[in-house]
Amino acid sequence: MVTLKDVAKRAGVSVATVSYCISGKKSIKLETQLKIREAISELNYIPNYSARSLKNNVSDEIGVILPNLDDSTNSEILKGIIAQAELAHFSVNIACSYNNPRNEQEIITKFISKNYAGIILMPCQSQNSDFFKRTLDQYQISHVFIMRLPKNISANFLGFDNYNTVFHLTKLLIQKGYSDIALVIGPSDFFSEGECVNGYSEAHDRYGLDYRPENILYTDMSKEGAFKETMLYLSTYLPQAILTSSQTIMDGVLEACEIHGIIPGKNICLITLSEERWNVSCYRPDVIQTSATAYTLGEDSFRILMEDTISPQLYDRKFRLYKDNILDMELSLPAPPITLVPIAAHPKCALRIASVDLPTIRAIQAVSCKFSLDSGVLLIFDFFTLQELFSLIEKDTRSERPLYDLYLTDVSWMSYFSFKNVFLDI
């Protein structure tokens, strides 16, 4: 294990000077500080924080806040954090916000009250900079943001270089002859997701290819959210390729493709940003996956947190983006698939449905494509306000040729329409 004496020897100074420099108790010349900082970095020195925590009444525990552990990238990041924390004899307390700002605020407040040495977090409220300034900055607790950086905040941040990764993948697809590429991501105000959009649009601009704004789908980053958005999208349009910003989003896309009868690798090319893995069995043969160094990002986030904990005055704020390994790899893309003709182009017949715009009806619309594929009967949904639908039903009942075949109404209207003799007596 590297000691304070090893750092002093490498920097060419006394042990006391290193100690003063780390603790900030005495003023050290900038030139000497730089030598010590370089020595600490080269030797990967991690001080005995347990002793320091007892002396300064600071816990030898850190808090880690992630949106969830379902995403494999989040899990790999966490593994890297835990590995380094164990080496430094630190305990890791893990909490999930599930992308709920209120949950996240409560967790952060709780962690601060426990006087943890620091917090590593992937925030879910990028616009709420005031909250982070009122808590993390005001209470001067060391912290590192990963993947998502709140607006207008100067803080330690580690993420992936999604701009160059998505630019590279989009470029390769365009050069291969793809002219219709979709991008499925999380909220654009997250740094990682916004960089995906920037890389995607820049590649199209650079290589002179226009894209439909509708080809960028925004989700809540859950499998269910991705499934819903992709189901609605594929019910009217089929691109040649889909890029996603995470494996979780890709899982939702795959479910939607299966219901639509779209075969990955044959009818569509699927590519997702993912993390490096040692076991080939984790890879799906019908999906191209990238190889980001999530474990390394986790390790470094703990090291940077410790540097900030040792002496905030000594270490500058870190802003670090990690390159995806796929940028240095040979990538063999399949030829652009022959576009399928949507069911809407050749239905045997169609049913027109008038409905109030409700989430439950939207869900029915999303999965109706399976019915259309099996039966050849196209379901056409039109949505109205309550008052509009009320007037439409009354009008259609007096018409010899109603505009709609089915009406989806609120049950509370049942007695009124019965009184008006609207229903067919069966």
Question: How would you summarize the topology of this molecule?
Answer:
Layout: H1 4-11, H2 15-23, H3 30-43, H4 49-56, E1 61-66, H5 72-87, E2 91-96, H6 101-113, E3 118-121, H7 129-137, E4 142-146, E5 156-160, H8 162-176, E6 181-185, H9 191-206, E7 216-218, H10 223-234, E8 241-244, H11 247-260, E9 269-272, E10 288-289, H12 294-310, E11 319-322, E12 349-356, H13 359-375, E13 377-384, H14 386-397, E14 406-408, H15 414-419
Parallel strand pairs: 1-2, 1-3, 3-4, 4-5, 5-11, 6-7, 6-8, 8-9, 9-10, 12-13, 12-14
Helix pairs in contact: 1-2, 1-3, 5-12, 8-9, 10-11, 10-13
Give a quick summary of the entry.
Helix content is 44%, strand content 16%.
Provide structural commentary:
With 426 residues, the chain is α/β, with parallel strands linked by helices. It is built from 15 helices and 14 strands. Strands 2-1-3-4-5-11 form a six-stranded parallel beta sheet, with helices on both faces. Strands 7-6-8-9-10 form a five-stranded parallel beta sheet, sandwiched between helices. The longest helix has 17 residues, at 294-310. The N and C termini lie far apart (84 Å).
Observed structural traits:
single chain; 426 residues; alpha/beta; five-stranded parallel beta sheet; 16% strand
